[in-house]
Write a structure and sequence with these properties.
Radius of gyration: 18 Å
Distance between the termini: 35 Å
Number of strands: 0
Strand content: under 5%
Structural class: mainly alpha
Helix content: over 70%
Order of helices and strands: HHHHHHHHH
Mean pLDDT: 77
């Protein structure tokens, strides 16, 4: 139970700083709907669980050569770059979609997979998660067992999902009170942040 609680707190806090997932989640809410945006967040939360579980248990499910790791990192950077440029070049548009446009929007499963892909393409994520896991383990607040690692990893995923849910609720509530020009500038700023990542 302690491991799960620590995971909830840590998962919530690590998602607050602006990152690629935060940017895409808010942008998707503005352009599509709550369900699509939260699907991206859930994809990221799933990856939080997977990364933390693999790091904590010390499982080496995959072995990649240094060259393969470099190729994967380059692909991740290229993926973020292309989507960042797309957001920077966003043209004036209405973010209040009519029902016909909403019906044409991709399914939630597509956004979920996008969340997994965005999260997986972050080249610094493994190092960050490894450092965080090492710090949490050094606190010695719970026994080092598979059940506790499972609880901690699940807590991290639930904590990150909770942050995104809260963020989306806040943005969704005040979305109609914000001028459309702000959303266009926000999309461009999001694109610039993605390029920076």
């Amino acid at each position: 139970m302690i491991a799960l609680l620590i995971g909830l707190i840590v998962g919530f806090l690590i998602c607050i700083p602006v990152g690629p997932i935060n940017v895409w989640v808010v942008s998707t809410l503005i352009k599509h709907n709550f369900r699509s945006a939260f699907s991206i967040a859930l994809g990221g939360s799933l990856m939080d669980f997977v990364y933390f579980m693999v790091i904590l248990t010390g499982l080496h499910l995959f072995h990649f050569s240094d060259r393969t790791v470099l190729i994967l990192k380059c692909l991740g950077v290229l993926f973020l770059f292309v989507f960042g440029v797309k957001e920077v070049l966003v043209k004036k548009q209405s973010f209040h979609l009519d029902e016909n446009l909403k019906k044409k929007a991709p399914k939630a499963a597509s956004f979920f997979l996008l969340g997994v892909l965005i999260y997986s393409s972050n080249p610094t994520l493994v190092a960050t998660m490894s450092g965080l896991a090492a710090v949490i383990k050094s606190w010695n607040l719970f026994d080092t067992s598979f059940i506790n690692y499972l609880g901690l990893s699940l807590g991290v995923a639930m904590g990150s999902a909770s942050w995104f849910y809260l963020l989306l609720k806040i943005v969704n509530k005040y979305q109609n009170k914000i001028p459309e020009r702000f959303f266009i500038n926000f999309s461009r700023a999001c694109g610039a942040l993605i390029l920076l990542f």
